[in-house]
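Sample intake sheet
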Amino acid sequence: MLTPAEEVGLAGIRLAGRVQRALDAIPPAELAALLRSVQELAAARHLSYQRDGTTETIRLLASPVTLRQDQLGYLHYVSQTILNCLKRLPDLYLSDPAVREILRLEPEEEAWLAECWTPAHRENNPIVARLDAVVDLSNAMWKDTLRYVEPNLTGIGGIHLAPTCDGVLSDLVVPALQARDPTLVLQRGADLRELLLQELLEHLEATGRPNGQIVLVDPKYELDGPDEPESLVEHFRERYGIRVLHADPSELRLRDGEVWYGDSRVDVAYRDYGVLDLIELEREGGDARPMRALFAGNRMVSSIAAELDQKSCWEVFTDPELARRHLTAEEQQVMRRHLLWTRLVAERRTTTPTGESVDLLPFIRRERETLVLKPNRSYGGEGVTLGPSVSQSQWDDALATALADEDRWVVQQIASIPVREFPLLTPDGSVHREPFYLVMGFAPTRYGVSLVARASQKQVVNVALQGGECGVMIST
């Protein structure tokens, strides 16, 4: 006899099955034409990534990831709980030496944090984050598969990409599915662009600058990465008539205590730029004072709290003693159930995922099949070594590299990544299906959670490693 949770969970299996049957019912020639149209519309809507100065259209996989309203509600609850804990990290860092050791900043970074974290920031601390996770939404016990891999607290990718993917599939694929299954009702979820804009407008109100100027600040002239800010500027202008500007930090000026971009005063900024990058800018003779003023004046989204964006954040929340010291009972329960056990790599004693006290390095060597090694503060999948995918000697070499690196590494429980098949076009125009690993990103605010889905034929799933994007649809 099934439990109530299993009964509800089976609805996810049925939903995924209905979508797959509708997709399978599309004749091959029509499906091939649909796949071509999806990629053409993706290009027209600037679903793009810059690589070495060349703009490439990101592969958009044509079968939507689907979930139900009850799943969406639970994902919002868990993601918002984790984000609220992350927002408290500056206070924990400044007050608890154990937390400070886990999240150790460079001295210059720490000086920025000490200067720019004030009681005013604590009361009004905007962070627009994407929490990367794995979850099998078509599993009857899907909540047990939900595992959060790492935080991304500033300059998150997908603000333009995710809703663009959803829009393309909503316009092209969903009607084709409904033509085969008219009772199939799928709609788009929360638009990450709207959630970001809501945060920015509310922060203008909270800081006494309603209707002020919003500026998106990023490495504007870099030739690599998602090509998103200009698309956001255009979207906000066309949809809402709001003038949003796009600037490089080097283009900002400090005058009479205010920050200016050209002739416009910067009242709030959304940043894709870290303090370490600003420190490097200063070393190269640039002026980081305008960005420092925005941080100190609490006119920056994400706030200075996002500088504690490290994979080792999960150690703070999964270490039993630290969790008891700093989290509520409800928060501890969420972390135990959904965060992957994570520890900084060093010669030390710590607790295992089962709570056993061990010497960490022998444990890492012994448990290769269940672990992954990662640089603590890198991104884009750089340097990740999956224990099950390498030999013991290669694993030992990776561990030696981690220990010798002046930048710290973490070891983490390996996540079971869901795999699903997607239809692809071959060079001759026919359709075949290939399996892809699927990783989710959840961007929570108090108003909802936006969903980002990425897929790859490698277990390290990242668009920077030439993975693909998926649309996400909610069943009503």
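Comment: The mean pLDDT is 93. The longest helix spans residues 4-24.
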